[in-house]
Write a structure and sequence with these properties.
This protein is of the alpha+beta class. The protein has 19 helices and 18 strands. The chain folds into three domains: 4-242, BirA Bifunctional Protein, domain 2; 249-414; 431-586, Threonyl-trna Synthetase, Chain A, domain 2 (Threonyl-tRNA Synthetase, Chain A, domain 2, 2-Layer Sandwich), CATH 3.30.980.10.
């Protein structure tokens, strides 16, 4: 019986032997600002499908393979059943014009049936959509039949048409492979996406059919596959659930035998998610990825308190790091345990307050339960457990409905934040919902150029941009650097920026060939594919003596004095060798 780690290595070697370059997993914190966390293996390859980046130049081949650490926030409140996870590993093979349906399906068939010795129960193909103008995938059907697969089922857009990741991107029909677990239940193990189109909108808009946006043919069709290691291990090891595989057994063994299975699953899932999020630089907070990390951490802490310290959360996290560190070298038990201890000390006071508040209620309904959850972090299960007879009429469905209402209110607040009628500016890096917000992000954009110049001035030329995201409230800038900045270094960077602002230097734009622009020493984002003619924005009297010069599409202020005072509000790690700075401006 193959272990999960052996399946992972077998997969990579299989595709490496067939001309695929093995690419390390990207961080759980993505460069794409339109998504909160990395949810699929294709995210780091998105620009290779669109032609913005060249895989031959970067990888020496049109075909790659990876094991991508992934996290899906949509499943947090589903964890506890037999199949849902937050953190998981996605095995994938990708082709950017190297091969298409025939080879992709044949590779999948060979790996499943020959390398793993599994039997394919059935496969699905895209049955076509008149609404989207995409015909039935007869080619995939023919290929599967030629391999001896007789049970081929046709499905619709909702099931077997992969939509774009984020707000736009490559998409296309898919074919899925199903195998059986020990109980004879058919489970989907592999999804093969044929990226034939580009859609300027979200998956939800595509599926709704109400958008005026249209599918555009990609110049070079590509292949994007995803196979969850946990599900595949379940099928290969002949067990009934993912939690019976060797990927979870040693974690489950650290929990009390008399603990109910749902709680065990939640704790082990969350322990894996916590270890990987914290090791990728996420820190518990009330916003974005930090909110997700804090939610997982506090749920585990709450269960530990409820069980009267019957298990040790730190022991669980140590086991996760021990199990995965040989493959994911960035896992750091030191960092993980430090953050968990700090959050535990902080949260236990809040938890005590939550239990006291719970004690004040005569009856706990869905509204009061959600208030306890939102204010004190008490999960539904713990409210039910501690509340006793007070929660007799409290049902998960009603609690989930309150949760849904809260999400809708949050979404409405986000829309209001950006003007209520969508964005008038969205370059991917800059976002604004009104003319006033556009002025703010323009000032922050120029400040970000100065931020990079300041970092290179203080820390050296090893600093390179790794991503940025600018809203009316702040700029977020990711850069390559191997350690935490000292307070003195941060102050020097901030002083550098504000000194240039005080000098009220002019901001110029000059169009030139890409080659000539590089010769000037202008900085550019290494993952961006630039046209032959580029704009170079530079700050200073002339290009030769400029304090900052970068390839850029704008917009920018005309003089640095328009920016206002810049304050660095936060600096943190987001992955191995990658730091993140947040800064804001005050007029």
């Amino acid at each position: 019986m193959m272990k999960g780690s052996e399946i992972r290595e077998t997969f990579l070697r299989f595709f490496e032997s067939r001309g695929h370059k093995v690419i390390p997993s990207s961080s759980l914190v993505p460069e794409d600002p339109s998504v909160l966390l990395t949810t699929a293996g294709m995210q780091q390859f998105k620009k290779y499908y669109t032609g913005e980046l060249d895989s031959i130049k970067d990888f020496g081949t049109k075909n790659t393979t990876s094991v991508q650490k992934s996290f899906r926030t949509s499943d947090i409140d589903e964890v506890g059943d037999e199949s849902h996870l937050t953190f998981f590993e996605m095995l994938g093979n990708f082709s950017f014009g190297g091969y298409f349906k025939k080879e992709a399906i044949e590779y999948a068939y060979q790996f499943i049936t020959q390398e793993l010795g599994l039997k394919i129960s059935y496969v699905t193909i895209f049955g076509g959509s008149d609404n989207a103008g995409v015909p039935k995938d007869e080619e995939s059907k023919h290929i599967w039949r030629s391999l001896g697969i007789k049970d081929i089922r046709e499905e619709g857009m909702e099931s077997v048409f992969w939509g774009p990741t984020g707000t736009s991107g490559p998409c296309g029909p898919t074919t899925e492979i199903y195998c059986k677990n020990r109980d004879g239940k058919d489970i989907e193990v592999w999804n093969i996406v044929f990226n034939e189109f580009f859609y300027k909108g979200s998956r939800e808009e595509l599926l709704s059919g109400n958008s005026d946006k249209r599918l555009e043919n990609l110049e070079v069709p590509g292949v994007d596959t995803g196979m969850g290691l946990e599900r595949l291990t379940m099928a290969t090891q002949g067990v009934s659930t993912i939690f019976e595989t060797d990927l979870f057994r040693s974690l489950m063994d650290l929990l009390p035998r008399n603990m109910d299975m749902r709680t065990k699953r939640i704790i082990t899932d969350h322990a894996r998610g916590i270890a990987f999020l914290l090791s990728d630089g996420v820190r518990p907070s009330n916003k974005e990825a930090g909110y997700v990390a804090r939610k997982l951490m506090r749920r585990v802490i709450a269960y530990n308190v409820l069980c009267e310290d019957a298990f040790d959360p730190l022991e669980l996290l140590k086991k996760v790091c021990d199990l995965y560190a040989s493959f994911y070298h960035e896992l750091s038990y030191e960092a993980v345990s430090r953050e968990m201890k700090t959050e535990s000390e902080r949260f236990k006071n809040t938890l005590d307050q939550g239990f006291k508040e719970l004690g004040k209620f005569k009856i706990v309904n869905a509204q009061s339960a959600f208030k306890l959850y939102e204010s004190f972090g008490l999960p539904y299960e713990i409210i039910k457990e501690v509340g006793g007879e007070k929660t007799t009429d409290l049902k998960r469905k009603a609690f989930d409905e309150e949760f849904r209402k809260h999400q809708e209110i949050s979404r409405a607040g986000t829309e209001k934040k950006f003007g209520g009628h969508g964005l008038i500016l969205d370059t991917g890096e800059l976002k604004a919902g009104s003319e006033e917000e556009k002025k703010k992000v323009t000032r922050l954009h120029t400040a970000t150029h100065l931020l990079q110049a300041g970092l290179r001035e203080v820390l050296g030329s090893e600093v390179e941009q790794r991503g940025s995201d600018i809203t009316p409230e702040r700029t977020r800038f990711d850069f390559s650097f191997g350690r935490k900045l000292t307070p003195e270094e941060k102050q020097k960077v901030q002083d550098f920026i504000n000194d240039i602002i005080k000098k009220d230097l002019p901001v110029h734009c000059k169009e030139m060939s890409k080659e000539d622009a590089r010769k000037t020493g202008a900085l550019f984002f290494f993952k961006e594919k630039y046209p032959e003619k580029v704009n170079v924005y530079y700050i200073g009297k002339d290009l030769d003596t400029a304090v900052s010069k970068e390839f850029c599409g704008g917009p920018h202020v005309t003089r640095t004095g328009e920016i206002g005072h810049v304050t660095i509000s936060k600096e943190e790690a987001v992955g191995a060798g990658i730091r993140r700075i947040r800064a804001k401006i005050d007029l």
